[in-house]
Records
---
Amino acid sequence: MSKVLFFKMPSSGHVNPTLGLVDALVKQGEEVIYFCSADYRERIEKSGAIFKNYDDKSILLENKHNVSGIVNIDDKLNYINEGLSSSEEIIQYILNQIKDIKFDYIIQSSMFPFGNIISQILKIPSINSFAIFAPSKDIIKDQDQLKNHPAIDNYKKISNKISRLYNIKMPTNMMDLFFSKGDLNIVYTSKYFISHIENYDDSFIFIGPSIYDSILFQLNN
């Protein structure tokens, strides 16, 4: 039996597609420890996972600040810049929560900013779950807007500090922190609905929509 460390952004669009996967893993004998916000505790526990709560002080993980829901690029960058200062705190918080547990692999939201960092620290494989079917370059159309924003310099300082502290490699591009790629990548659609399939290599598996009984129950009640 393997132990699976699960990280998800606290959003229905990120959590709901994974519940069927969690249910299948648990039925196969895997032990899944799932980090999310308290709003999703009941549905996560119904899928068979062990629930753990994020530190609510981290702005990068608060549902109301979910970067995927922010349309204006300046607002995105301001939000990221504000939240970067809590990066070291939330990484250490998670490490403290799991310090006595040996995991075999991580499954995370592609937009969860710390999953690949933690997988490097723990030296275990990462599997990324894609709720948004586009790379960062397609979501942020004008890359020139990134160049002069204070978040860029702030990210360089913080990423250098985290790299030295944990002896890991941080993404060069700040936005890759929120659109990360794992050793294996799961996409909840068919490849026939992807407009630029050339952006996806052989590490991507298109498994189609995730339909799970507990989700349907919640939607009907």
---
Amino acid sequence: MNAKIQPTLTQIVIYPIKSLDGKIVDRAKISAGGALEFDRRWAIVDADGKVVNAKRTAKVQQLRSQFDFTEDPTITIQTAKKNTSYTFCLTTELTELASWLSQFFGFPVNIIENSIVGFPDDLDAYGPTIVSTATLETICEWFPDLDLAEVRRRFRTNLELTGVPAFWEDRLFGAPGEVINFQLGAVRLHGVNPCQRCIVPTRDWITGNASPKFQQIFNQQRQLTFPPEVNRSRFNHFYRLAVNTRIPLAEAGKFLNTGDALSV
């Protein structure tokens, strides 16, 4: 690694309920399944067991939520159009939360839980996603109407690095079937693949309104700024951002902390 480059973990975000708002934390424990504890631990599903998320309906983005884990985990939730908020305990009041959400969506939903690996999108690489602050700042340059906070909300990455140039994190995956081993603080991780993106980043996180030509502009700019040393074969298209990872099960119980250094 270049002596002038020192990747450092400066932000950790977990998303306790899949598709709802995230929570910034100073440290995150590795679960028994190799995920971040509490990340996507709960999911909203319809009567057929299908996940209700922002890919499926932009109405999800009209929900504002805050989480508190100081004692029993709770969610405080409200809609963007109303000031009244409601608090539910995530260990004892999932039925009540599901009832409130059913009223909001207009169809019955339930809340399901998986404390081992959560409900990741990538079932092969279900560890935390990694991006650099410089990468997110570059995206702000592509879309002048978006600030850094909005770009973070749209791409919903777990771990953010400073001390590196834009798209440096693309070095953390290799050829298909190959993993890149690296260490973040006390935790070993495997970089697996570049994260394929969906419709969610194209929409304003507060209103759910689509940004015109977002995916087209992103594709063009991502290709123009693609690092020459990165494995291009992993990009059948350029609507990809951040790195999907796996954490070996032997790392369970360890912690990632802000300020941890990354070494390859």
---
Amino acid sequence: MSNPSEYNLISHLNHILRSLKINYKNWFVLFISCVIMCHKTSIIWGCIAYILCIFYAYFAHRISHEPAGFFLNRAHIYHHEHSDWSSHAIQVCVELAASYSPIVYFYYYLNMENSLFLCDPYIFMFFSIFYTSTHNVNYGMFSVNKVHAKHHEDYTVNYGPDICDIIFRTKYPENAVENTDHYIPNAIVATIITVGFRYMYEGLDGNKQQLLKHFLFKLYVLIYFIVIYFTMKQTIIDVNKMRERDMNEFESRITELIHKLQSNNM
């Protein structure tokens, strides 16, 4: 990361503009997605909501690496330590359950799906699918490039999305720009799934909507508790490993001390 004394505002702004220019196709697809998603409301508000969700994803990931985000952190660190199916499965649970949990609870308990509250709930659904699939499929399964792999080596850089790393100066290499065209299929699929779900949900009568809403909320809570259970389980494993390591070191020092005493008595 750059030294603050070396920071150059013009260079920084040029870096941001270069990223927007290189990835114009990805931004165009996201804009079309926003138009489709928000055709019943305000496209301007929809664009603001999309931008807020992009920043939300960045800061949720960044906070998960801080001590304050412990219940996100341990499960996410497991994802950093392993690349098997269980690693990706628990990471999907983290991203679905933890990242947007405050919003989900607000909508469920306050019944705000028909109110203007931060943004349309379907936009959060879109970004859950979009971000989770990009992270776990593009970067995880297909390893489309080395950008996210660098984050697994150094937790302080390349959180993603790339534009946020550039804006908040957590990009590595510092002056690089990731070509995010590989986001496009994820955005298209996420839009199709979300719009399809919206039409299906809005086509149900009130009672069926409530039943589906309660079912999805219970499923969401179940996923949330899976993350908590996994975090506690891994924490216990970590503590036991530390205790075993400390005991081995203690026994090794005692043995070494006994050998020295025996040598001195001979």
